[in-house]
Task: inverse folding
C-alpha cells in the first residue's frame, strides 16, 4: 500500500515543478513594444502598475533586452496612457534592440550601473555631410548636459540640433559596457566618422529575416542554441550535445541565411568556409587550411563553423579521382570526430546535393541531423514576401496573399527576384519623366512612385521558379475559349487538375487523395495537346512539357536519370503538371523494342512506373499523357494509380465543329454572309486541326485580296494624284463567304474511316473492361444483388479434361471453358481468329478427340449458327443446344456429379468395348471440382457474350436458324 501514495506525491511534485516553470515563463517583465509619445532616445514609458510589478521607480535605470542578443540601458518613466503589458520606446531604441512594433522585449533592473569616466563617441558619415563647426559644442554637449543619460557600447543615438539631425555611435565606454554620462564624464569625439555600410552588414540577419522555414528553424534552434547557451542541460542528463547539422535543399531556399541568423541570435563566433577556398596546389596545404579554421573556431568558442557547398570538398571517396579530395575528406572526418573533444563548437554544412557527400560524414557524431530546407508552402511564401517588401513602398491595392498563392514552387531567392522585378516595372513606368543626365531626381517623382499590384502581376509573367529554368516552358496563352466542344473532357480535366489546386480542403474533408494521371487518346488533330496547354494556363500550377525522345540518350543509365530528375523538379515545384506529348514513344509495351541497344526504352518505362508510384501523396504532381497509339502503350501504365483517367478525344460532332469554327474565328473580322453552321454541317469527319486549316486558308485568301486591293489603290493614286480620297472608298477588311468557298475546295480529312474504327474499337473494349457499366445497383435492404459480377474469375484451375458438370441442386448442365475452344471458336469467329485461339490454348490430344466427337454430335445446330456468328444470342443458343444434347447423356442421380473422361483403353482415338465407340467414359467427381468447373464455364460464357457486337437479334421462331416466315430464311432479325 505504501508505494501508491509515494507515486502520487512524486506526480504532484512533478506537476508543481512544471507549473512553476510555466509561471516563470509568464513573468511580468516580458512586455510588448509600442510607439513612444515622448521622442527621447534614453527613455521608455510603462504603465504605473507594470512598474509596480517590476518593482521599479520613476527615473530608474533599466536594462532592456531585445532580439539577436541585443540590449540597451534606458530610464524608466510612468505613463498612465500606456496599456498593459506594453512598453513605449522610440525608433532609435527599437533599432538598438533590433525589434519592431509588436515584438516582445524583457525589462530588468540595472542596480550596478555606474557613472562613466570616459566615453568615445563618433558620428555616422552620411549624417555629417555638409555639417560645419564643432560637433561636440553643437550636438553632444547640449544632449548630455545635466541629463544623466545612460549609454551602452555599440548603441546608436540621434541628436537634433540646428537645421538637421546627426546620428552618433558609442565606440567605447569606461569602466563598463554601459554607464551613465555624468557632468564629470570625459567625452572624446576624435576620429573618422563611422561608415553606414559597416552598420548594415549581412551578419545583422536575425530569425525575423528568415521566412517560410518555421519548422526547420525550431529544429535548428533546438540543436544549436541549447548546446551553446545551456550546455549544462546535456551534462546533467549524461549525453553529448550534437556536433553537426547538415542543411540541404534547392538553391535559394535560405540555407546560408539560416546559418548567419543562428550565429547572430546566439551571439556565437561565426566562421564561414566556402568549399573551394581551402583548396591549394601545394601538397598538404588544403588540409592545413582546414585545420586552421577549426583551431580559430575553438579559440573563439562558443562558435559556429559553417561550410558552404560542402559537397565540393567532401565528395564520395570511391567516386573521386583526385587524391586531394580524398585527403580533405579524411581530414574533415578526423576534425569532426577526433580524439580532442570540441567544446562549444558546432559545425553546420549546406548543400543542394546531399547524396554526393561521403557517407562517413553523415553518421551520428559528425553531422547528427540532416534538415531539409525545402520549397516553402503558401504561408511560408507570404512570410518571405512580407520580409522582402517591408522596406518597399507599396500601393494600397497590393495583395500579398494572392501573390503568395500564385507563386507555386518559388523559393526565397525567387521571391526576392520577383519583388525586384516588380520595383523595376514601377521604375520603367516613370522613365519618361526621369532625366538620366540630371544628377538628382525631382522629389515629386520619387514621392509618386509606388509598387502596385499590376507591377507584381507583370513580374509574375516574367519570372519563374529557379528549379524549373532548365525544363520550364512558356505557358501558352490558350484558354478554354480557344477549344470548341469537348465539354465533358473539359469538366473531367478541371476536376482532376484544377480542383486539387484550388480546393484542396474539399479533398481533405472527404478523406480522399485526387487522381494524379490522365491519358488523352484519339485521332490526330483532335485537340489533345491543345487541352494540355489550356489546363496549364487555366490552373495556377507550374507546367513542364516533356518530349519523349529527348529523354533517351546514348549513355547507359542516363535516360533513367533524366526521368528521375524531371520528377524531382516537379515535386520541388508542386503543384506541377507534367505533360508527356507522344507518350507512345517512351511507353511502348515492354519487350516490343526489338534491336533496342541495352533495352533503354524498357528501362525508361520501368523508371516512369516507379516514379509515378513513388510520388508522395502530399505532393501535388499531375501527369498528362497524349498519344494517338493507345494500343501499343504498356498496360501497367494505364492502371489506376498511374494514368487512371483514360479520356477518348473523338472526332468532333456537328455542334463541336461549330464551336471550333467559332473559336478559330473569334479574333477575326468575319462577314455576316458566312454561315458557320453550314460549314459545320458539311465538314463531317473533319478533325479540329482540319477545321483550323480551313479557317487559316480562308484567312490567307482574305489577306491576299486585301493586299491586292491596297496595291491597286496605290497604283490609281499614283496615276491620278488629284483624285479625292473619298472617290477611293476603302473596303472593310473581313473574311467573306467566297473565301471559305475557295478554302473548302482544298479541304481534306486527315483521319480515315479505318483509323476511326480502330479508336472506336479500343474505346469500346476499354468500356467493356470496366464491367459494370450502368447496370450496377446496390441491393435493397435484406435482399440479394440481382446482377452478376462481371469481374468474377474462376475459383481454381480445373483439370483440362473436365468438359461438363451437372449442378445437383438445379439440375442444369453448363458448358465449360473448353466448349469455347471446342465449338464456338472454329464455327463462330473468323478463320484467322480461330487460328490464334488454337495456337494460344493448344489442347491435349485427349481433349482434342473429344472436341471432334462433340462437334459431330451437334452438327445440326452448328450449320445454322455459321451465318449468325456476330449475334450475342448465338452463345446462348449454342449453350442451350449443347446442354440439351448433353442432358440426355447425364441420366444419373442428381446427388452424383459426373464428368466425361477419355477412355484409357483406346486413348480416345478409337472404338473399343469399354467406351462403346464413344471415345470417353463416365467417372464421378467431387462437389468442389464440380463447383470450380461451373464457375469457369459461367465466366467463359460471360466473356464471350460481352465481346460480341450487338448488331443482330436472333430469330425466336426458328431458334435453330432454319428458315421461317419471320426471319425470311436468314435466321436473324435486325433491330
Result:
Amino acid at each position: 500500500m505504501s508505494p501508491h501514495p509515494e507515486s502520487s506525491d512524486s506526480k504532484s511534485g512533478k506537476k508543481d515543478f512544471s507549473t512553476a516553470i510555466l509561471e516563470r515563463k509568464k513573468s511580468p517583465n516580458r512586455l510588448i513594444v509600442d510607439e513612444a509619445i515622448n521622442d527621447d532616445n534614453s527613455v521608455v514609458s510603462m504603465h504605473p502598475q507594470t512598474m509596480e510589478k517590476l518593482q521599479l521607480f520613476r527615473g530608474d535605470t533599466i536594462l532592456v533586452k531585445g532580439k539577436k542578443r541585443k540590449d540597451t540601458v534606458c530610464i524608466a518613466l510612468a505613463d498612465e496612457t500606456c496599456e498593459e503589458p506594453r512598453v513605449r520606446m522610440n525608433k532609435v531604441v527599437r533599432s538598438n534592440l533590433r525589434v519592431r512594433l509588436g515584438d516582445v522585449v524583457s525589462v530588468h533592473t540595472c542596480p550596478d550601473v555606474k557613472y562613466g569616466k570616459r566615453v568615445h563617441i563618433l558620428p555616422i558619415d552620411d549624417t555629417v555631410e555638409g555639417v560645419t563647426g564643432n560637433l561636440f559644442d553643437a550636438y553632444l554637449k547640449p544632449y548630455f548636459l545635466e541629463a544623466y543619460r545612460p549609454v551602452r557600447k555599440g548603441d546608436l543615438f540621434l541628436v537634433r540640433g540646428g537645421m538637421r539631425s546627426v546620428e552618433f555611435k558609442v565606440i567605447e565606454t569606461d569602466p563598463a559596457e554601459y554607464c551613465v554620462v555624468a557632468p564629470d564624464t570625459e567625452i572624446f569625439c576624435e576620429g573618422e566618422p563611422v561608415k553606414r555600410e559597416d552598420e548594415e552588414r549581412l551578419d545583422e540577419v536575425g530569425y525575423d529575416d528568415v521566412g517560410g522555414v518555421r519548422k526547420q528553424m525550431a529544429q535548428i534552434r533546438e540543436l544549436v542554441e541549447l548546446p551553446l547557451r545551456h550546455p549544462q542541460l546535456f551534462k546533467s542528463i549524461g549525453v553529448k550535445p550534437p556536433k553537426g547539422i547538415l542543411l540541404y535543399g534547392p538553391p535559394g531556399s535560405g540555407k546560408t541565411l539560416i546559418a548567419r541568423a543562428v550565429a547572430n541570435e546566439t551571439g556565437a563566433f561565426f566562421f564561414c568556409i566556402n568549399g573551394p577556398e581551402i583548396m591549394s596546389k601545394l601538397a598538404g596545404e588544403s588540409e592545413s587550411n582546414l585545420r586552421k579554421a577549426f583551431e580559430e573556431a575553438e579559440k573563439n568558442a562558443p562558435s559556429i563553423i559553417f561550410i558552404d557547398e560542402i559537397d565540393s570538398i567532401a565528395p564520395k571517396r570511391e567516386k573521386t579521382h583526385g587524391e586531394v579530395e580524398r585527403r580533405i575528406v579524411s581530414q574533415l572526418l578526423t576534425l569532426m570526430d577526433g580524439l580532442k573533444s570540441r567544446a562549444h563548437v558546432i559545425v553546420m554544412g549546406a548543400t543542394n546535393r546531399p547524396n554526393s557527400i561521403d557517407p562517413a560524414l553523415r553518421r551520428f557524431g559528425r553531422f547528427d541531423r540532416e534538415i531539409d530546407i525545402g520549397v516553402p508552402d503558401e504561408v511560408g511564401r507570404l512570410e518571405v514576401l512580407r520580409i522582402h517588401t517591408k522596406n518597399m513602398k507599396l500601393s494600397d491595392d497590393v495583395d500579398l496573399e494572392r501573390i503568395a498563392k500564385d507563386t507555386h514552387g518559388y523559393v526565397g531567392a525567387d521571391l526576392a527576384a520577383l519583388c525586384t522585378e516588380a520595383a523595376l516595372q514601377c521604375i520603367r513606368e516613370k522613365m519618361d519623366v526621369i532625366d538620366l543626365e540630371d544628377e538628382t531626381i525631382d522629389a515629386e517623382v520619387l514621392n509618386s512612385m509606388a509598387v502596385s499590384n499590376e507591377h507584381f502581376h507583370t513580374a509574375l509573367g516574367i519570372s519563374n521558379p529557379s528549379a524549373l529554368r532548365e525544363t520550364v516552358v512558356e505557358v501558352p496563352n490558350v484558354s478554354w475559349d480557344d477549344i470548341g466542344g469537348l465539354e465533358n473532357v473539359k469538366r473531367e480535366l478541371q476536376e482532376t487538375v484544377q480542383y486539387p489546386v484550388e480546393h484542396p480542403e474539399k479533398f481533405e474533408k472527404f478523406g480522399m487523395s485526387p487522381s494524379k494521371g490522365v491519358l488523352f487518346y484519339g485521332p490526330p488533330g483532335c485537340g489533345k495537346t491543345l487541352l494540355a496547354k489550356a489546363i496549364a494556363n487555366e490552373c495556377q500550377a507550374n507546367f513542364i512539357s516533356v518530349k519523349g525522345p529527348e529523354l533517351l540518350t546514348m549513355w547507359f543509365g542516363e535516360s533513367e536519370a533524366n526521368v528521375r530528375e524531371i520528377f524531382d523538379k516537379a515535386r520541388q515545384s508542386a503543384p506541377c503538371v507534367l505533360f508527356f506529348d507522344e507518350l507512345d514513344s517512351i511507353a511502348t509495351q515492354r519487350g516490343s523494342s526489338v534491336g533496342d541497344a541495352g533495352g533503354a526504352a524498357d528501362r525508361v518505362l520501368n523508371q516512369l512506373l516507379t516514379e509515378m508510384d513513388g510520388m508522395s501523396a502530399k505532393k501535388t504532381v499531375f501527369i498528362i499523357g497524349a498519344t494517338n497509339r493507345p494500343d501499343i502503350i504498356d498496360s501497367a501504365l494505364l492502371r489506376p494509380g498511374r494514368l487512371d483517367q483514360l479520356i477518348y478525344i473523338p472526332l468532333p460532332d456537328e455542334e463541336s465543329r461549330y464551336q471550333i469554327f467559332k473559336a478559330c474565328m473569334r479574333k477575326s473580322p468575319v462577314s455576316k454572309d458566312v454561315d458557320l453552321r453550314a460549314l459545320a454541317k458539311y465538314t463531317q469527319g473533319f478533325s479540329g486541326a482540319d477545321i483550323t486549316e480551313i479557317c487559316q486558308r480562308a484567312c490567307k485568301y482574305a489577306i491576299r485580296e486585301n493586299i491586292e486591293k491596297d496595291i491597286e489603290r496605290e497604283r490609281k493614286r499614283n496615276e491620278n494624284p488629284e483624285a479625292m480620297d473619298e472617290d477611293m472608298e476603302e473596303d472593310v477588311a473581313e473574311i467573306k463567304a467566297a473565301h471559305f468557298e475557295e478554302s473548302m475546295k482544298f479541304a481534306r480529312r486527315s483521319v480515315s474511316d479505318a483509323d476511326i474504327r480502330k479508336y472506336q474499337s479500343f474505346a469500346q473494349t476499354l468500356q467493356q473492361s470496366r464491367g459494370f457499366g450502368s447496370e450496377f445497383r446496390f441491393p435493397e435492404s435484406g435482399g440479394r444483388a440481382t446482377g452478376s459480377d462481371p469481374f468474377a474469375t474462376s475459383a481454381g484451375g480445373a483439370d483440362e479434361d473436365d468438359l461438363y458438370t451437372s449442378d445437383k441442386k438445379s439440375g442444369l448442365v453448363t458448358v465449360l471453358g473448353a466448349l469455347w475452344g471446342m465449338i464456338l471458336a472454329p464455327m463462330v469467329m473468323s478463320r484467322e481468329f480461330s487460328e490464334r485461339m488454337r495456337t494460344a490454348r493448344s489442347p491435349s490430344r485427349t481433349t482434342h478427340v473429344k472436341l471432334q466427337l462433340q462437334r459431330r454430335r451437334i452438327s445440326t445446330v452448328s450449320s445454322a449458327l455459321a451465318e449468325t456468328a456476330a449475334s450475342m444470342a448465338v452463345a446462348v443458343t449454342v449453350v442451350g443446344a449443347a446442354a440439351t444434347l448433353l442432358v440426355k447423356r447425364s441420366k444419373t442421380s442428381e446427388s452424383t456429379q459426373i464428368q466425361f473422361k477419355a477412355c484409357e483403353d483406346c486413348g480416345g482415338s478409337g472404338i473399343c468395348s469399354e467406351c462403346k465407340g464413344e471415345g470417353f467414359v463416365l467417372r464421378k467427381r467431387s462437389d468442389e471440382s464440380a463447383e470450380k468447373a461451373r464457375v469457369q464455364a459461367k465466366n467463359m460464357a460471360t466473356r464471350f457474350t460481352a465481346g460480341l457486337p450487338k448488331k443482330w437479334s436472333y430469330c425466336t421462331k426458328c431458334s435453330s436458324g432454319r428458315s421461317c416466315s419471320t426471319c425470311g430464311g436468314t435466321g436473324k432479325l435486325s433491330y
